[in-house]
Input
Amino acid sequence: MPKSANQKLKLLYMARILLTKTDEAHPMPLEQIKRELSACGVEAERKSLYDDMEALRTFGIDVQMVRDPKARYFVAEREFELPELKLLVDSVQSSRFLTQKKTCALIKKLEKLCSHYEAQLMRRQVYVADRVKTMNESIFYNVDCIHSAIAGDRMVSFKYFEFDADKKKRYRHGGGRYCVSPFALMLSNETYYLLAYDAAAELIKHYRVDKMDSIQLLEAPRQGGEAFAEMDVASYAKHTFGMFGGERQRATLEFSDKLAGVVIDRFGKDVPFIPAGEGRFCIHADVTVSPQFYAWMFALGPDARIAAPGEVAAGMAAQLGRVAALYSETGGRIHETERG
Output
């Protein structure tokens, strides 16, 4: 049989056919493999296919054969098992920090790691109530640039923005660039944060990666290594509620016994529980005092209380007062409107 121009690509085409069009539930007979190769411009004799199968096995592709009653071939073990791929697809689909466009692109790439038949099983939606996807398409590349800067011991610069009432970007510092030394990326509440040293302020600060624009890798070496080395990153992430900045304080918090699991989820199992009587216990913890911290305590209702220090408890009371006043004013206006 004369050799075609694509004959040298025969093994590559054969590997692709077996990887994408076969699996344990869909083995392929030799005649169909020959037809698939022919469609790629490669003619093959039946005898040569046996040698090709063995060559693929030697290369590391797990080609198996079953008889029912004819011999059929399929790829059995792959780099990823189907349940593992489904888990990755679910994670990508439910990820808040990926845009919808990037989500679809990543899922399509994951589908290439299994057969066409298995890919159809992966095309399922993970429905998360009111899931809000990030609007910053560049976050994927921001993360990559930050990783490169950390690995290369270099600084980064970027513009930092927030959205105004018109849903338009409003850049901080008048549109000026932030220049910082990146040391770590943290994922908190499905949001990526950069932990970096600000030389001008001589402080370690955190920044939301999805709020960064026009990020650049600088030639300047990082600063603040000593400050970062003295920092407990895990503790910082655990006690900075929602990654809102604020004053770090040692607080005594009191909880109902039924909230033990909630407290362990937030502060870890190592925090000592001090019995406080009447079905309650106390803990001593370092917390970042911020509106987000107060909101977390408020969500636990009367089963949680800030016992000390007094100024933190007073801050909670003041926050509750401001919110209550807002609703009282609203209720009053509604009442007056109804009477009119």
Q: What stands out?
A: The CA atoms of residues 14 and 256 lie 64 Å apart. The chain has four domains: 7-75, 82-122, 144-229, 241-323.
